[in-house]
């Protein structure tokens, strides 16, 4: 019975102390324990073409992106991003930068056509009139800053040649 008294005494102490000094893992008295995000990278004075600040991170472990584009059977294009040291954020996440997390913006000839939360995208052929076009994928942190390495945005560009109509419809 001696061990039972010791256990009951320990439980009583935990109940009386509660909080950070008590037993268990946070959350005592209805308080939710959260981990605050530490600052990630350094904000630079430079911006991208849309005026978004660059968030400089070291080369080692920095996010990377590669883009591959293939025509499909109906005059549209399949875009596939390959990312490294990066994961796409789901909709509704807080606007706080977290290392290696965020979204990608897809550009056609410098014009934003999509904000991506996945690695695959179907690009409508009507956005690409006949001719050669530059398709760029750029990585952004959840707060809207651009991931950058050595002062340059983390991005990848592919050139494609479309044989569609002369002019695109907006």
Write up this protein.
- The chain is mainly β and 170 residues long.
- It is 9% helix and 41% strand.
- The chain is built from one helix and twelve strands; from the N terminus they run αββββββββββββ.
- It has one helix at residues 2-17; strands at 42-47, 53-56, 64-71, 77-84, 87-88, 101-108, 111-116, 120-123, 131-140, 146-149, 152-153, 155-162.
- Strands 5, 6, 7, 9 and 12 form a five-stranded mixed β-sheet that branches.
- The model is unreliable at 1-37 (pLDDT under 50).
Order of helices and strands: HEEEEEEEEEEEE
Provide the residue-averaged pLDDT: 82
Radius of gyration: 25 Å
In DSSP terms (H or I, runs of 4 or more residues), the helix count works out at 1
Which term fits the overall shape?
Answer: elongated
Ends apart, CA distance between termini: 81 Å
Helical percentage: under 10%
| Number of β-strand runs | 12
Major sheet description: 5 strands, mixed
Strand percent estimate = 35-45%
Class by alpha and beta content: mainly beta
The stretches of 5 or more residues where confidence is low (pLDDT under 50) are: 1-37
Overview in brief:
The chain is mostly beta strands and 170 residues long.
Which labels suit this protein?
mainly beta, 170 residues, single chain, four-stranded mixed sheet, five-stranded mixed sheet
Q: Could you give the topology of this structure?
A:
Layout: H1 2-17, E1 42-47, E2 53-56, E3 64-71, E4 77-84, E5 87-88, E6 101-108, E7 111-116, E8 120-123, E9 131-140, E10 146-149, E11 152-153, E12 155-162
Parallel strand pairs: 2-10, 5-6
Antiparallel strand pairs: 1-2, 3-4, 4-8, 6-7, 6-9, 9-12, 10-11
